[in-house]
Amino acid sequence: MTEFGAFLLPVLPLLGLLAVLLLGRYPGCETIVRLSERIAVRGGRRPASVGRQRLPLPPRSFAPGGGLLIALGLAQRPPPALA
Q1: Does the CA dihedral 61-62-65-69 come out positive or negative?
Q2: Rounded mean pLDDT of 43-71?
Q3: Alpha-carbon Rg for the chain in angstroms
Q4: Rounded distance between C-alpha atoms, residue 21 and residue 27, angstroms
Q5: What are the pLDDT digits (tens) for 9-56?
Q6: pLDDT of res. 6
Q7: Contact 27/17 with Cβ under 8 angstroms?
Q8: pLDDT at position 58
Q9: What is the pLDDT of residue 44?
Q10: pTM for this entry
Q11: Secondary structure in 3-state letters for 11-75
C-alpha cells in the first residue's frame, strides 16, 4: 500500500488539473488577460529618438570559432603517402 501511496501523491495535482481542463475551465486564463491588458495600457513603443541610442556593432570577425576552432586545433597532418 505504501508504494501505491507514494505513486498517487505526486499524481494527484496532475489528475486535478486534468479534471479541471476536461470541465472546460482554464486556470490562469483570467490572469493572462489581466496582465496583457495592463501591458497594453502602459503604452506602446517609445519613438527611437526618445529611447536609448543603439551602440555600433562590433566589426565582423572571420576567425574560426566554436567547434571549427576545436577541430582545427586538433587536426594533424595525414600520414605520408606510400611510395
Answers
A1: negative
A2: 74
A3: 30
A4: 8
A5: 889 999 999 999 899 888 888 888 998 899 888 866 655 555 578 888
A6: 85
A7: yes
A8: 83
A9: 60
A10: 0.37
A11: HHHHHHHHHHHHCCCCCCHHHHHHHHHHHHHHCCCCCCCCCCCCCCCCCCCCCCCCHHHHHHHHC
- Please state the φ and ψ torsions of residue 3, each to the nearest 5 degrees: -65, -40
Exposed (0-12), middle (13-18) or buried (19+): which is 42, by Cβ within 10 Å? exposed
Residue position matching grid coordinates 570559432: 65
Report the length, in residues, of the chain: 83
> Which amino acid, 23?
L
DSSP-based three-state secondary structure for 8: helix
* CA 54/CA 41 separation, integer angstroms: 26
Q: pLDDT at position 15, please?
A: 92
Q: Which of 35, 40, 17 is CA-nearest to residue 27? A: 17
